[in-house]
Design brief:
single chain; 5-stranded antiparallel β-sheet; 32% strand; alpha+beta; 6-stranded antiparallel β-sheet; 13 strands
Length: 253
């Protein structure tokens, strides 16, 4: 990796210059963070699990016609992706009240929402990724009204896909966040799903027991994060049934 040019390093991933123009190599780190990186740890094997899980979800989305930045997995921790212009928003879809919406509105965690709710937050760790209304997004030029309509449509399609996939393996999709990127074909712009989709960016609860299988395990000190992510991967078939011990996963090709 030292021979490659690093483009960006975030809390959970590093982006390197890709082998061809318009591509990047996305490297998944073992770092776990919460509360805007106030809580940190290194979880052995987390990056490899998220690499494979994100590959699984991105491929599934592309199969149903949802465009993504994913090109192919390169190895245990790296993906080849399209270079995109990231819109500076986190797009949050909520099916069940949990986390910040429960705190903000006093809704009991676990309450089924009347319909999926789409929220936007401004991507800025220093500000705590504040929620922003559509009026702000348009006024500050982060996205147009047409962009927002398209983003909501994409987010709800992702929600339909993810909800079905997870329910089929006994997991309830509580909420998730995605990022959206712009790609240009001449003067024509397309919006595509970018960044990652993994237990880092979703809330996942076991349907029968309510056990949390996502980053809340780390946020709330509920157990071993690698165990939770490995369980998600095992149920989805990303790991073999009689696979390795959590923390040092051997992922199937």
């Amino acid at each position: 990796m030292s021979r490659r040019k690093m483009i960006y390093e975030g809390k959970a991933k590093i982006l390197y210059e890709g082998p061809e123009p318009g591509t990047l190599v996305q490297y998944f780190k073992d770092d776990a963070t919460a509360f805007n990186a106030e809580k940190k740890d290194v979880i052995d094997g987390k990056g490899a699990l998220n690499n494979r899980l994100s590959e699984f979800f991105m491929k599934g989305l592309m199969q149903i016609g949802v465009p993504t930045h994913f090109i192919k997995r390169l190895n245990m921790r790296e993906q080849l992706i399209r270079q995109v212009e990231i819109i500076p928003l986190e797009v949050i879809v909520r099916n069940v009240a949990a986390g910040s919406i429960s705190k903000r509105l006093g809704i009991e965690e676990g309450t089924q929402l009347p319909r999926p709710i789409v929220e936007f937050s401004y991507k800025d760790d220093a500000l705590g990724d504040p929620l922003v209304p559509e009026e702000y997004i348009i006024a500050f030029g982060w996205a147009s009204q047409q962009d927002l309509d398209d983003i909501v449509s994409l987010a709800l399609r992702v929600n339909d896909f993810m909800s079905g996939v997870m329910m089929a393996v006994g997991i309830k999709l509580i909420d998730f966040k995605i990022e959206i990127g712009r790609v240009w074909d001449g003067d024509f712009q397309r919006l595509i799903v970018a960044d990652e989709i993994s237990p880092d960016s979703c809330r996942l609860w076991d349907v029968e027991t309510g056990q949390k299988l996502d980053k809340d395990v780390f946020r709330r000190d509920l157990g071993n994060l690698a165990d939770a992510y490995t369980e998600v991967a095992r149920r989805l078939g990303v790991l073999p049934v009689n696979g390795p011990q959590p923390g040092k996963p051997t992922l199937v090709n």
